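Session log. Operator J.P. requested a structure for one protein chain; no other inputs attached. Running the standard single-chain path with token output.
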Amino acid sequence: MSIVGDALVTTSAVELRRMIEDLQISPVELLEACIARIEAVNPFVNAITATCFERARSEAKAAERAVLKGRPLGLLHGLPIGVKDLEATQGLLTTLGSHLYRDHVPAADNVLVARLRAAGAIVVGKTNVPELGAGANTRNDVWGATGNPFNPRLNAGGSSGGSAAALACDMLPVCTGSDTGGSLRIPAALCGVVGFRPSPGIVPSSRKLLGWTPISVVGPMGRTVADTCLQLAASAGVSVGDPLSYPLDPAGFLQPPEVDLGALRVGWTEDFGACDVDPGIRQAFRRKISAMKHLFRSCEEVRFDLGDVHRCFDVLRAEAFVAATRDAYARDPGSLGPNTRANYEIGAAMSLLDSAWAQAEQTRILARFNAAMSSYDVILSPTTPVTPFPWTTLHADTIAGEPQANYYRWLALTYIVTLATLPALSLPCGVDHAGMPFGLQVVGHFRADHRLLGTAAALEQAFAGSDELRRPRPVLGELRAVEPALTSIVSAPPDRAGGGAAVPVSAA
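Structure written below.
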């Protein structure tokens, strides 16, 4: 297979933006290189779903004219972007990976997409998700499955799996993500890119039905920490569409504070005292800690006793899914896939007593987490408890010989941090025992997002000099079609361009 685009598509988003402003490259040239890479590589991983190449070409030409005329340029001016298929994009098919929305072409962008466009980003297409974002294996009956760029027979994580795979394959320099139980961090870990879950309210999410919940956030993904910060700066800030958002200075994320790793007190945990973790991942994590501990002032294991984190997440997650899927389930339970249906049925069986307990327990979890990390600047853990498994397996049902209570229990390493509402980032950190990307979860203090990003940038720089710790890269020239095909679960897929004749479906 011929890989197209060479050095241009592998250049960082930050550097591409500088080159556009300095007239070293044209937005048109960059877009065509990205389209060529998508056409060459996407058939092997199925990360990009609906596309709008002709519209993007028109916008790239306009972006080129703006540069030549010396007009003010936005933070993302001329950068091609992939948008997660949960986010509404004006005029572009937005399916949420569900038959309920297979013909849905929104009349307007949501807040996130509108901000990215206003910053000059050029939407090229949508990135694949599990049905309604439920689960950490990106597969659905509309578009099929997304394969891992390091081995397409294995899963790319989720629910932002399409974005993570697209970034890892250098199809696009910028892609969006979102995170409830780990939907940014897990695919970033499994594909070897960066995924940042910001504190609630930093990036507004206008699609949350339960606007006051802090467990679901929108956040950036990138190939580097700096690229991630660039998207964050273009999307952060108050919006009436998200009642948790608040006024802040988005530009402050462009250059997070410099952090001296040698002054850091680092705590690490394999499992937060509550998660099942595969022995191979535990061993790989210990190897990583041994390779990096000399970088810090101190590096020691920290013990957690966080209470009933699993039941708490069960209730809070179920509340959100009941709100989103009640009408669709009432009409026809069979219209929902197994993950989404399971979420609804778990929630429908709960009571007000369960909800009140979970709200109070989440507050206690934050207090317990803060007490445990009070002596540390950051906490390190694995991002995922298992190496990527075949995408044909819906979820990890057993870890280290322990059966998992439901399809999302294997996400516990990330959803525990979600419950504490702390900022967290998954940073590429070499490979695991199976030779697949290993994600290091870096957890910061309450609302200390700038400090966490600065720490992650310093870690990334230090890891670059280590064979054990540096970011792995997939060998795209060795990609081959796999059986079963990644699109084999699709039944009559819609037009990838999203025709104007499509009729929006009412929200479920």
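Operator note: Residues 8-256 form a domain with the Amidase signature (AS) enzymes fold (CATH 3.90.1300.10).
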